[in-house]
Amino acid sequence: MERYYAHETAIIDEGARIGEGSKIWHFCHVMGSAEMGKDCILGQNVFVGNKVKLGSNVKVQNNVSLYEGVICEDDVFCGPSMVFTNVINPRSAVERKTEFKPTLVRKGASIGANATIVCGTTLGEYCFIGAGAVITKDVKPFALMVGVPAVQKGWVSRSGAILGADLVCPETGEKYKLAGDNLELVSE
User: Fold this and answer.
1) DNA-binding among the record's keywords (predicted)?
2) What confidence tens digit (pLDDT) does each residue in 51-74 have?
3) Could you tell me the CA-to-CA distances from 94 to 49, 87, 89, 107 in Å, in that order?
4) What is d(CA 67, CA 86) in angstroms, rounded to the nearest whole number?
5) Pick among 1.10.3260.10, 3.40.50.2020, 3.30.450.20, 2.160.10.10: CATH of 5-161
């Protein structure tokens, strides 16, 4: 019995490591040195390149390509048609496969539909990237980022709720505090 589900149209290259309970839907391609944790979901038409690492419970919505150099920790959400890059200055006539820049998406981060993440960046834990935003630099944990290029417009809780001035999650009651320019969880 299979430990994970793969639709009959999915292509999973030999050597790919896929965690128990994961689901791989229509027209996906998982390359041979890719790694996926438990309970991941790849929506329709997702590409997972060589050396890509996905933690557990990662949700990748339709039409997303995760290229070599992308690492997503546990509980990451990648919205429909969002984009990861892996070369800063691509040219068709210049091969730059030795110049791939890594992108790290920390635990619990959410990336909205049609957002673009320029390679060489780190998205902090539980940050929230708004739909259509273009990320060109590192993002702080819990930061709410919107626009082109993206700018921080506030803070979000671990559950994704926008925090008010009191820095208390309206959904869970979790309390946060500012420590310099960063937000920290105080209590659950």
Assistant:
1) no
2) 999 999 999 999 999 999 999 999
3) 20, 11, 10, 34
4) 7
5) 2.160.10.10
Q: In this structure, what token pair is assigned to residue 53? A: 């690492």
- Where do we find the tokens 């834990």? 125
| Tokens linked to 78 | 């990648």
| 130-177 residue pLDDT tens | 999 999 999 999 999 999 999 999 999 999 999 999 999 999 999 999
Rounded to an integer, what distance in angstroms lies between the CA atom of residue 45 and that of residue 43?
Answer: 7
- Identify the residue whose tokens are 């050597």: 15
